Amino acid sequence: MKFKYKKYDSGTFRSVIQIEVSCNSLSVPYEVLVDSGADICIFDEDIAIILGINIVKGIRQEVIGVTGIPQYYYLHKVSIKVGGIEYQTDVGFMKLSNQAFGIAGQKGFFDKFIIKFDLKKEEIELKERV
Question: Exposed e or buried b for every residue in 21-34, given b needs 16+ CB within 10 A?
């Protein structure tokens, strides 16, 4: 399946795609940055609240981003749907600073798909791993 890069007002293109996140019989559409540099999937805590997830009841983990300042996220199992493919995985939830999208990382996304980035065509292609 192919997705177009998302274009922002600044003229920047990013590998942001639409997914659906589900838990507790609730679902929400959500945009994620397909990020090969991210170890795991990290979603904003607001998504957890919508899905009825009590964030702090998850497994607490530490992450250190580009600022070098440790922050904490909480792991919870959710379902992710991309195109017609749905699977369960662990996702970290935390407050993401002024970011309109989550992060789709190595564990929980790249381990499910073979991913091809084509900036010139402004396109991301996902193939399900079998």
Answer: bebeeeeeebebbb
